[in-house]
Amino acid sequence: MKDRVYNFAAGPSMLADEVLNELHDEFFNYNGSGMAVMEMSHRSKEYMEIFNEAKGRLRRIMEIPEEYEIFFMHGGATGQFAAVPMNLMKKKKADYIITGNFSKKAAQEASKYGEVNIIYDGKENNYSHIPSADELSFSDDIDYVHLCANNTIYGTEWKTFPDTGDIPLVVDMSSDILSRKIDVKEFGLIYAGAQKNIGIAGIAVVIIRKDLISDHDPKTPQVMAYDLTLKNDSMLNTPPTYPIYVLGKVLKWIEEIGGIKEIEERNIAKAKLLYDYLDHQSFYIPHAEKGSRSLMNVTFTTPSEDMDAAFAKKATEQGLCNLKGHRLVGGIRASIYNAMPIEGVEKLISFMEEFAKENA
Amino acid sequence: MKDRVYNFAAGPSMLADEVLNELHDEFFNYNGSGMAVMEMSHRSKEYMEIFNEAKGRLRRIMEIPEEYEIFFMHGGATGQFAAVPMNLMKKKKADYIITGNFSKKAAQEASKYGEVNIIYDGKENNYSHIPSADELSFSDDIDYVHLCANNTIYGTEWKTFPDTGDIPLVVDMSSDILSRKIDVKEFGLIYAGAQKNIGIAGIAVVIIRKDLISDHDPKTPQVMAYDLTLKNDSMLNTPPTYPIYVLGKVLKWIEEIGGIKEIEERNIAKAKLLYDYLDHQSFYIPHAEKGSRSLMNVTFTTPSEDMDAAFAKKATEQGLCNLKGHRLVGGIRASIYNAMPIEGVEKLISFMEEFAKENA
Question: If 0-12 CB within 10 Å is exposed, 13-18 middle and 19+ buried, where does residue B359 land?
């Protein structure tokens, strides 16, 4: 494990050392089966145990009530941008809240399947702000309200979620699932690509209230139909077996270190360190509004674009990788997901201090 | 690598020792990057090299002409059951040839998007037969003809492919891609889930003639649209990064041992050994017609269902795993994909001889 870097990528991103070590140890011969997990039939006893254990851990850690189902699906969160409307739009109408790039993409995709009302768009403030309850009013007769919990590109995050009453709230939690305690009962459906906080690319986790699972748009591909996914326990076709196994290992790690409570404390501590530093200097300019700041993605700029580039380059040389902001917005972005240790953040701050001194 | 079994699973299935060893060696720190491949941003320089190398190797090994594109997509082959009609059905009409379970499923899925003509169905002969040219006649004014090259469940395989003239031939090669030489120019589109012959679950490879890539059905999810996949070089969203990396390693292994020529010779030798044995004994009953036999999945039964179960159980005890036939048909199935060494087949035959003697 030596010579490893601190990987601040927005996703795919770091895995905890404990997780990587277990994957490596079990690689050739999982639990005496004589085969690697990636070689196992998804219908085998050994693999079914891995699969069910991952589901069970997720249910325990997130305290997912019995009236919710857990699906492991192909296609990432972008697949869910289509799956959600194809499955949930019965009245063919939904409200979308746009607070960044991915919520915008979700809304665009949904508009292929029904009427999409954009009830908030943060474009004017360059997506530095998360709307409060009094900035939102929901349309009549809609199937659901959709939002993205954490905006990786802009570094903003919903602290509390809007009360949508009887209307199901659908939330993309790709970049902050399992980073903090949430009450699953506030949501009709939660989905997340695994590659940021809970695993590797190639799998989406869907947590859905059972009463929302019924018929789908007739043109829904089978692999995206929630009723078929339920009927086949996420094995309508061969699931992404290895990504599900890695997810299980990440969940095991979270349980072993103390669950959501511990992860949330760690994440708050890491983010506080970085934001406190940003708030007590004048070289770097933070992007997100204070009340809307993300625990997961900390975004800021140096005084110039050239200097942003120099920052990212020099950081990489010191083993602090992937700090360049998203190509849509530039600047710097430090993604500090669950697996980023506080030492990585401390080292980043030291580097920032040094870089600021040299370039002031 | 000790205590490993011979895994005869129909998929996911065995990987070559050389492949597993490289994955294990490079696990924590790929090529001095300081990170595991599964932690890498799909947009990083290191990962783009892995991605492009995999594509390049596939093009070389299969001799894919320039007028064809290669896509790596989410959703497995079952995702393609929908993607093919959603993208290719302009006239809303296609011919499907049913020679087994997966071609039937493909036809059912396609019928959601247009008129599907079943021009052959092997139901009467319990899918033991692959039709010859004079058993097929194609409909007028269709978008494509679809077939499944190898039928894992029944153990049959197309030796040559029908000449469809100007009509694009679309082929599901999930269970025999890269097992033998084919001429890509005979096909409009080839697709394959990777988990049988070329990698692990969670990725579909699509090889498509460029002129077939155009508009899609307006309800096609973005992740399934071929034109968007082309425009974004298979990175419209985060691709299944680790499965693509494993695919690249399998392709490297194939190139290093001598390419398709060597793999095909090995596969013919393995299958010949097993079929020759079956043809010179009377205890086991082979399922597929001689002229339709698969190089990849060898299917047979013992004299009774109870004995089938005893066979699979006892074989497992001797490190010959997953020989139980598919739950739809029962019996025994030995899947001997690219990664199965001839020693595995030899050991299986010894076991079969012994079992037959004991139970005659």
Answer: middle
> Which residues in chain B have Cβ-Cβ distances shorter than 8 Å to A238?
11-12, 76, 193, 195, 201
Note whether B147 and B103 are within 8 A (CB).
yes
Residues A31, A245: Cα–Cα separation, whole Å: 13
Average pLDDT taken over every residue of chain A = 97
B-chain CB neighbours of A42 within 8 Å are 12, 201
Q: Measured between CA atoms, how close is B23 to chain A, in angstroms?
A: 9
Helix, coil or strand: residue B41: coil
Residue A100 Rama label (left phi>0; alpha psi -120 to 50; beta): left
This prediction has a pTM of 0.97
Do residues A201 and B238 make contact, with C-beta atoms less than 8 angstroms apart? yes
Size of interface A-B (CB pairs under 8 A): 220
| Strand partners of residue A96 | A118, A146
Q: Closest residue of A to B16, CA-based? A: A39
Q: Is A163 exposed, middle or buried (0-12, 13-18, 19+ CB in 10 A)?
A: exposed
Residues of B in contact with A24 (CB under 8 A): 24, 27-28
Chain B residues with beta carbon closer than 8 angstroms to that of A5? 33-35
B58-75 b/e (C-beta count within 10 Å ≥ 16 → b): bbebbebeeebbbbbbbb
Rg (CA), chain A: 21
**Contact (CB, 8 A) for B120 and B97:** yes
B18-255 topology per CATH:
Aspartate Aminotransferase; domain 2 (3.40.640)
**Interface contact flag, A34 B112, Cβ < 8 Å:** no
Contacts of A79 in chain B (CB under 8 A): 74-75, 221, 223, 237
Name the closest residue on chain B to residue A198, using Cα atoms.
B39
B14-64 pLDDT, tens per residue? Answer: 999 999 999 999 999 999 999 999 999 999 999 999 999 999 999 999 999
d(CA A44, CA A340): 34
Output the six-digit token pair for A273. 């360190």
Cβ–Cβ < 8 Å for B142, B95: yes
- pLDDT by residue for chain B (360 residues), tens only, comes to 568 899 999 999 999 999 999 999 999 999 999 999 999 999 999 999 999 999 999 999 999 999 999 999 999 999 999 999 999 999 999 999 999 999 999 999 999 999 999 999 999 999 999 999 999 999 999 999 999 999 999 999 999 999 999 999 999 999 999 999 999 999 999 999 999 999 999 999 999 999 999 999 999 999 999 999 999 999 999 999 999 999 999 999 999 999 999 999 999 999 999 999 999 999 999 999 999 999 999 999 999 999 999 999 999 999 999 999 988 888 999 999 999 999 999 999 999 999 999 998
Angle between helices A241-257 and A259-279 (to 10 degrees): 80
Does the beta-carbon distance from A12 to B39 stay under 8 Å? Answer: yes
Q: Which residues contact A265 (CB under 8 A, 6 or more apart)?
A: none
For domain B259-359, say whether CATH 3.90.1150.10 is its number.
yes
CB-based contact B44 A9, cutoff 8 Å: yes
Between chains, do A1 and B28 touch, taking CB under 8 Å as contact? yes
A178: closest CA of chain B, how far (Å): 18
What residues pair up with B204 in beta bridges, in sequence order?
B73, B193
Task: Provide the residue ranges of all domains of chain A, joining segments of one domain with +.
Answer: 18-255, 259-359
B118: number of Cβ within 10 Å: 14
Contact check, Cβ <8 Å, B29/A3: yes
| b/e A86-111 (16+ beta carbons within 10 angstroms → b) | bbbbeeebbbbbbbbbbbbbbbebbe
Q: How far apart are CA B50 and CA A13, in angstroms?
A: 17
Give the ipTM.
Answer: 0.97
